[in-house]
Amino acid sequence: MKKYQAVILAGGKGRRLHPFTTTIPKPLFPLNEKAIIQIIIEQLKHYGFSRILISVGYLSELVKAYLGSGNRFGVEIEYVQELEPLGTAGPLTLVTDYVEDNFIYMNGDILSDINFKKAYLFHIKRKADLTICTFEKKIQSTLGVLQYNKNGKIKDYIEKPIHTFSVSSGIYVIKKETLKMLKTNCKIDLPLLVKKCIKLKKELVSYPIKGNWFDIGTAADLEKAENFISNK
Prior knowledge:
Strand content: 25-35%
Largest sheet: 7 strands, mixed
Low-confidence stretches: none
Order of helices and strands: EEEHEHEEEHEEEEHEEH
Number of helices: 5
Shape: globular
Radius of gyration: 19 Å
Mean pLDDT: 91
């Protein structure tokens, strides 16, 4: 059975959850007695991703102490160390010598119903350089919105409309060749990498996540994610 590979970002300071992250890195926040990153690793293993690379930085010793070699989770875990913050794409330059031709890349604070194997195989089938796993986000306006005709006259008034957007989930499938666009140890975020791919006409596709998705950035998000895990 093929062992798929995933790279998890776990080096951020989790500023949105300060002061809770002063002593505990966000990926280690407990949800029903399991750390967020443990839940992610167990999900990855379920879909055949048993080789895990983790990029650590802030409070890295705690992440390493909790996860260890990965034996107790049935996976192989290796680590790369950010000596200084490299953004959300910069850590990719640290894993170039360790990753396979294609791999999952994701934040260590994301929970969802995604089928990682299907996303990976979709990426392979499309021969993509970068696949962005997306989630449909509905945002309601707090104000009434006007619509005009060509003459500038009001043709409609919509009270607090709901707009639907396709947003990045923080989960990606990346072709190793794509990493050549990055400078070693240079701070860069994923949006800039995506823009570079677009500019260079790389094969850039999206894979929609059906079901639940949580970006755990606030205490309210933590509560929602905990309810999600409790009801699974």
